[in-house]
Q: What sequence folds into this?
């Protein structure tokens, strides 16, 4: 059997990794500013993480959700306290798409309404409703066209007036910061307007924080920068630092029917231990404020690099819009300077999504390398 050909691949075979370094099979050391796509939040193989996961596996690795798993309760308690939504309820699943799928299902069930509003440039995952709410037609198959999702322009407050009088809208879904679109930040006024329209139409505000959450923006959730309250929040990626876990956080007013949500693997012991370790390190190493302050400093430095047209983002979720297509630049950064970065659907925008404890010295290494590559591209 062969692997289904779905991913474009770097010609690199990592054998081990530590902190912000990834080592290839040929011994080359790479600086990881991509975090395996915004997943590595506390650094590769962080000692606390390895210790906690190993110890958990020695005790018990898996049982089904038909028994009490106190680690789930502990994760709900600690996450609620750290993220600023202590009275919300936690549903644990396995990925970002699954979190959004369940978030939208919950919103439709709670409101009794069938329609979802999403926004241009959005990416919410590749499962049925999540991909239908995704504004990248190449990811959608014919069976994903249920007609229950429509799109409005991102960051356009005026366009929301078209919704006047609608009674069928269950939810608006929006990313805390659009990642795949090339790090597009919603204006605080836009998110505040969405909140008002939700209240007016009896719809729920679903914040997709799969990429921008868990401290990446320098705030626990990126939407908190705008001071708005979400009804439902979806998370994944940085939540487990590489161990698969996703989650839906829902307002106490939302009560699902038994049997409506569920998953075999969601909330297993190892996933909970991984996420508790992430919360512990975010707290102990002060990573939100490190991401916020060092991100601002780094973005200022990157704005001065000739060939960089615009720098967008918050914390350590950074989009660099170049004056040229970014794919060849990314390739040179990787091949000549051994630095991992990410691209996006916006062909000129490079994405930086490093671990939240990236030291300033490594930011400087990248700024120098980028300056050199752009000067000779
Ligand atoms: C904002 C956002 N939502 C959802 C997803 C889907 O997550 P997953 O790949 O874990 O299904 C992603 C993944 O990139 C994402 O960036």
A:
């Amino acid at each position: 059997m062969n692997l289904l050909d779905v991913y474009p691949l770097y010609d690199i075979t990592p054998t081990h990794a530590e902190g912000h370094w990834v080592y290839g099979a040929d011994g080359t050391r790479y600086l990881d500013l991509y975090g395996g796509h915004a997943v590595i939040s506390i650094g590769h193989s962080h000692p606390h993480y390895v210790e906690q996961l190993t110890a958990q596996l020695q005790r018990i690795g898996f049982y089904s959700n038909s028994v009490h798993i106190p680690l789930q309760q502990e994760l709900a308690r600690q996450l609620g306290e750290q993220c600023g939504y202590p009275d919300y309820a936690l549903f644990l699943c396995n990925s970002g798409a699954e979190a959004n799928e369940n978030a939208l299902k919950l919103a439709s069930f709670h409101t009794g309404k069938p329609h979802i509003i999403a926004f241009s440039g959005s990416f919410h995952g590749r499962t049925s409703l999540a991909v239908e709410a995704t504004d990248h037609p190449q990811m959608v198959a014919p069976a994903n066209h249920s007609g229950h999702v429509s799109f409005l322009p991102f960051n356009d407050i005026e366009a929301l007036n078209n919704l006047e009088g609608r009674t069928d809208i269950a939810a608006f879904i929006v990313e805390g910061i659009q990642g795949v679109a090339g790090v597009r930040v919603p204006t605080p006024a836009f998110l505040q307007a969405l909140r008002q329209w939700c209240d007016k139409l009896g719809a729920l505000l679903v914040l997709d924080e799969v990429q921008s959450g868990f401290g990446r923006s320098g705030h626990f959730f990126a939407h908190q920068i705008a001071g708005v309250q979400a009804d439902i929040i979806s998370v994944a990626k940085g939540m487990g630092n590489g161990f698969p876990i996703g989650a839906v956080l829902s307002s106490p007013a939302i009560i699902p029917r038994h049997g409506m949500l569920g998953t075999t693997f969601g909330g297993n012991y190892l996933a909970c231990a991984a996420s508790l370790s992430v919360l512990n390190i975010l707290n102990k190493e002060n990573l939100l404020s490190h991401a916020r302050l060092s991100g601002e400093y780094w973005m200022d430095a990157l704005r001065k690099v000739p060939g960089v047209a615009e720098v967008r983002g918050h914390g350590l979720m950074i989009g660099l819009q170049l004056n040229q297509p970014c794919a060849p630049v990314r390739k040179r950064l990787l091949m000549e300077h051994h630095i991992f970065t990410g691209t996006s659907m916006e062909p000129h925008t490079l994405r930086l999504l490093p671990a939240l404890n990236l030291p300033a010295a490594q930011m400087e290494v990248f700024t120098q390398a980028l300056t050199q590559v752009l000067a000779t591209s």
